[in-house]
Design a protein that fits this description.
The complex is a heterodimer of chains A (267) and B (318).
Chain A lengths: L2 H21 L1 H28 L13 H32 L2 H7 L7 H27 L8 H28 L3 H6 L2 H5 L15 H9 L2 H12 L6 H26 L5
Helix pairs in contact in A: 1-5, 2-3, 2-5, 3-5, 3-6, 3-10, 5-6, 6-10, 6-11, 10-11
Chain B lengths: L7 E10 L2 E11 L4 E5 L6 H8 L9 E4 L2 E2 L4 H7 E4 L11 H11 L4 H14 L15 H13 L5 E5 L7 H16 L3 E6 L2 H7 L2 E6 L2 E6 L1 H6 L5 E6 L2 H10 L4 E3 L4 E5 L4 H9 L6 E7 L3 H9 L14
Parallel strand pairs in B: 3-8, 3-9, 6-7, 7-8
Antiparallel strand pairs in B: 1-2, 1-4, 4-5, 9-10, 11-13, 11-14, 12-13
The chains are: A mainly alpha (267), B alpha/beta (318).
């Protein structure tokens, strides 16, 4: 199987998945609604109090209000959106695997991994739409930033990379799952993990053990980098750490998924 | 497959799941351009054979070559030559008929113009033009099966596997499907089909393999299989008791039913045997006559010791 066919088959499968997304929009709508609800909840219910706890310019507490908190959590909410769509992709992939057409694809002389790349690329495009909708909501609520064009382009690039890596991981989870129900549960931790990061409160406020975890888990450099990019600050070394995590997760997710899908089952 | 090697060559194929043996040494040869029917009840191993030959399942032991390629070492070669319509619908229900066919044409790497042509041709041939732009999930069972088969044939495979292609179809759809299979064979395509319907094997197949409990218990043409089983007879109905009595005297091996005024004379289905019966009859005595040949149901019973299970969820074929 040569590269031309791999690219062509992936494009064909991507078209199939885009049609699926268009024909079955309710899953996508639910996945976007959840981060928007979190945004509203955190800004309007908790935002006044939590904003007051944000570090001020001199690092002392008591520096912010509700508006500052909105700016603080928007990156975390955007990454939660990416995780939420990735969870939906796990459900969609697992459901697809139960259909007869997958067996048909397996009997055809095609680049088999294109069945998976179709899902992943479709999911990345879907994530793009979801992120734009959630970001628009944040703007509606009053999010403003000093970021320049370069910062926004960097933010978009980073979000695509994160979407790509989380999707490969959840596709692997979908293939490893023995049922659609399992596939819809195992990736749930990805949606919860941003809570234990720098996404909603500064990690300084956490007890020592939790803080150690929060500062070293992959979502923290991703969120810190995104926050720096959309507020016009310099992400520094977090950028490379975030990219490194994404590349690592993509690679492992891809190899795992590929291995699960390509093997000819013994039963 | 330009040479004259068999389309399918299987020697000593086994398959088991743990301690449970599904196939226990199957030998199978299907020459190019012929139709081979695997006949057997549920659980006989028909689908397992199809799945192994179409590279969906790893074989146990045995030498298996499909379209000249080894299924273990050269699965890509096998896949390039075959088309499969499985027992379960292999269409994309969220896509329309046109989109499903286009998907297959693109995956077969046809260029844009050929793909468009092929899709149009298939929609016409399979009577799906009116439904072309509707989602496949709205199709009836017969339409789904036609779309399924159209998707298999649009890539013009030289060898097709049909796993219980007509189960659940109404008599008309079944006959339509038989016609399509015959067309393919006329074009030189090789067909391996599985069926629980004895009549279907009789109608379509050049050779029939009777599969029971994971092994082939008999193989041959429909006629050869029928000859292996006694049971055909000529049934003669008489106008009165006297006629019946005199004919019964001439055929000591016949069974007499005095109440129905009929005589059942054993017959091997040959013209000579039939003539012997007719020669002994007086035209004025006879009210009616039927020739009952052995059907494959009798064959199945005789070969396996148990009747072929009629599928419970569907009516029997027309």
């Amino acid at each position: 199987m040569n590269t031309t066919y791999t690219v062509r088959d992936s494009a064909t499968m991507l078209r199939r998945n885009l049609l699926h997304i268009r024909r079955y929009p309710s899953l996508s709508i639910m996945l976007v609604a959840q981060p928007i609800l979190f945004l509203l909840l955190f800004v309007y219910v908790f935002g006044g109090t939590l904003g007051a706890g944000l570090p001020g310019v001199d690092g002392a507490a008591g520096g912010g209000n509700r508006g500052d908190y909105l700016v603080f959590i928007t990156p975390g909410i955007l990454i939660m959106t990416v995780a939420s769509v990735a969870l939906g992709t796990a459900i969609a992939t697992a459901t697809d695997m139960t259909t007869g057409i997958i067996a048909r694809f397996r009997t055809m002389n095609i680049a088999r991994v294109s069945v998976l790349t179709g899902h992943v690329l479709g999911a990345v495009i879907k994530t793009g739409f979801a992120v734009v909708i959630v970001a628009a909501f944040a703007f509606l609520l009053g999010f403003r930033s000093d970021a320049g064009l370069l910062g926004w382009l960097g933010a978009i690039g980073l979000l695509i990379l994160i979407a790509f890596s989380l999707t490969w991981l959840t596709v692997g989870m979908a293939l490893a799952a023995d049922s659609v129900e399992t596939a819809s549960n195992t990736p749930l931790f990805l949606v919860m993990l941003p809570f234990i990061s720098s996404g909603f409160v500064p990690t300084d406020a956490m007890p020592a053990g939790l803080r150690l975890f929060a500062e070293n888990q992959p979502f923290t450099p991703m969120i810190d980098t995104l926050r720096a990019l959309v507020t016009g600050a310099d992400p520094g070394s977090d950028l490379w750490l975030a990219i490194g995590w994404c590349v690592l997760i993509s690679l492992l997710g891809y190899l795992w998924s590929r291995q699960l899908f390509l093997r000819v089952p013994a039963k | 497959m330009t040479n004259s090697n068999p389309a399918i060559e299987v020697v000593g194929l086994t398959k088991s799941y743990g301690d449970h043996s599904v196939l226990t040494g199957v030998d199978l040869t299907v020459p190019q351009g012929t139709v081979y029917a695997l006949l057997g009840p549920n659980g006989a191993g028909k689908t397992t054979i199809v799945n192994i030959l179409s590279t969906l399942l790893t074989p146990g032991d045995g030498e298996i070559r499909v379209a000249g390629f080894d299924v273990r070492r050269e699965p890509a070669g096998v896949r390039a030559a075959i088309g499969v319509t499985g027992q379960f619908s292999a269409i994309d229900e969220l896509l329309t008929g046109t989109e499903n066919l286009r998907l297959m044409a693109d995956l077969a790497h046809l260029d844009r113009a050929s793909a468009t042509n092929a899709v149009t041709m298939m929609l016409e041939r399979f009577d799906l033009v009116d439904a072309a732009d509707r989602r496949a999930q709205t199709y009836s069972g017969g339409m789904k099966r036609r779309l399924d088969l159209a998707m298999t044939l649009i890539t013009r495979p030289r060898l097709i596997f049909l796993d219980e292609p007509t189960s659940g179809l109404d008599p008309r759809s079944r006959r339509d499907l038989w016609a399509i299979v015959r067309e393919q064979v006329a074009d030189g395509v090789t067909v391996l089909l599985t069926t629980q319907y004895l009549e279907e094997a009789d109608q379509l197949a050049d050779r029939i393999g009777v599969l029971d409990g994971g092994r082939l218990v008999a193989e041959g043409t429909a006629a050869q299989l029928k000859r292996r089983v006694p049971g055909g007879h000529v049934s003669v109905q008489f106008r009165d008791v006297a006629g019946l009595a005199s004919a019964a005297a001439a055929h000591p091996d016949a069974t007499t039913d005095a109440e129905a005024l009929t005589l059942q004379v054993p017959n091997d289905g040959s013209i000579a045997g039939l003539r012997r019966v007719l020669d002994g009859l007086d035209d004025n005595d006879v009210a009616g006559l039927t020739v009952e040949s052995v059907d494959l149901d009798d064959v199945f019973l005789a070969l396996t010791g148990h009747p072929a299970e009629a599928p419970t969820s569907q009516e029997s074929p027309a």
